[in-house]
Amino acid sequence: MMGAALALGRRNLGLAWPNPSVGAVVVRDDGAGPVVVGRGVTAAGGRPHAEPQALAEAGAAARGATLYVTLEPCSHASPRGGPCAVAAREAGIARLVSAIEDPNPKVAGDGHRLLVEAGVAVETGVRAAEALRDHAGHIRRVRDGRPHVRLKLAVSADGMVGRAGAGQVAISGPAARRWSHGLRAASDAIMIGIGTALADDPRLDCRLPGLAGRSPVRVVLDRLARLPLGSNLVGTAREIPLWVVASVAADPARLARLTEAGAHVILAGTGADGRLDLAEVLVALAARGLTTVIAEGGPTLAAGLVAARLVDEVLLVRSDLNVGPDGIPALPGRGLDDLVADPTFASLGDSLLGPDRLVHLWRQE
Ligand code: AOF
Ligand code: ZN
């Protein structure tokens, strides 16, 4: 039943921000085996929460039933809806099974406590490892004030991400491409540096059939506001959010034109190297509600995030193609093998995407 709740919760990853995408199921057993009588997932935009939806579907059948949730029910009152723990108590839930405690200081155990005090049998920690991964963005945001950062790299057998002056080089195959668009759908945002924006003129949307509405916020790190008004990103800014992060050194007239074209401009400081301060950029993104961000290019951004220890998850797609000596290395200043061997990261296992291999690493706290 927790597996069902986790699967439900995953449905709105990428849509529920600034809130976590929580799954909830109400289950009754009247002697003939367990029956799911209510289901809920946090709605797009974060409200309503999962529990009131599952409880409403269950109606009177919630009395005496078990509520399975992928995150501790909230205990804080909000203008957008009452505390879920109170809703569960009022509905007459007899038992609560949750995966993890909510680290949000507004909750932090109070949701569980409220139910224990009401005489509800509370069990937590069920399939916690999976819930910790699904809610990684929420957890990172409430603990560290920044989003969970997924570094996605498609690299050739000789460790290259492209060829100098050649624009986009097809390194991975169609299966990897479909997988990466699914990753876009399940993430709040995708972030690239201006070098990649100028070289590739990408759209960074989700182009899987039926999932266009799941395109992530597109973020371009563009210190001097060089993103062309005629680029694909600016051209689609009214349909899919485009956030341009610049510094005070950018020409205000260029920033005004980007705003007029539908982009949202964010100003951030620069570090000692003259580039945008990545830690500050991430804090600004989390302040606007983002919980998960894919960093998808280019090598400068990847190397900057790795050096600043801001990478939480590595998704390395390795193809067996060779780019050759005029290739652009994936991680300048640091080898890929070095990253894969870094004890900061644990392997979540490799998988195959057609002919390509996905190496999945997760930061160990
Ligand atoms: C739940 N069920 O489905 C979710 C929860 O801004 P608010 O009032 O909507 O509260 C947001 C916080 O509620 C969020 O930061 C997280 O701690 C929790 N999310 N809680 O009981 C849900 N999405
Ligand atoms: Zn709630």
UniProtKB/TrEMBL annotation:
Binds 1 zinc ion. Pfam families: dCMP_cyt_deam_1, RibD_C. Residues 1-122 form the CMP/dCMP-type deaminase domain. InterPro entries: CMP_dCMP_dom (IPR002125), Cytidine_deaminase-like (IPR016193), DHFR-like_dom_sf (IPR024072), Eubact_RibD (IPR004794), RibDG_C (IPR002734), Riboflavin_Biosynth_HTPR (IPR050765). The active site is at residue 51. NADP(+) binds at residues 154, 196, 200. The keyword Zinc applies. Its EC number is 3.5.4.26, 1.1.1.193. The keyword Disulfide bond does not apply. Zn(2+) binds at residues 49, 74, 84. Its cofactor is Zn(2+). It catalyses: 5-amino-6-(5-phospho-D-ribitylamino)uracil + NADP(+) = 5-amino-6-(5-phospho-D-ribosylamino)uracil + NADPH + H(+); 2,5-diamino-6-hydroxy-4-(5-phosphoribosylamino)-pyrimidine + H2O + H(+) = 5-amino-6-(5-phospho-D-ribosylamino)uracil + NH4(+). Pathway: Cofactor biosynthesis; riboflavin biosynthesis; 5-amino-6-(D-ribitylamino)uracil from GTP: step 2/4; Cofactor biosynthesis; riboflavin biosynthesis; 5-amino-6-(D-ribitylamino)uracil from GTP: step 3/4. It comes from the Bacteria. Substrate binds at residues 184, 204, 207, 260. PANTHER family: 2,5-DIAMINO-6-RIBOSYLAMINO-4(3H)-PYRIMIDINONE 5'-PHOSPHATE REDUCTASE, DIHYDROFOLATE REDUCTASE FAMILY PROTEIN (AFU_ORTHOLOGUE AFUA_8G06820). Converts 2,5-diamino-6-(ribosylamino)-4(3h)-pyrimidinone 5'-phosphate into 5-amino-6-(ribosylamino)-2,4(1h,3h)-pyrimidinedione 5'-phosphate. This is Riboflavin biosynthesis protein RibD. The gene is ribD.
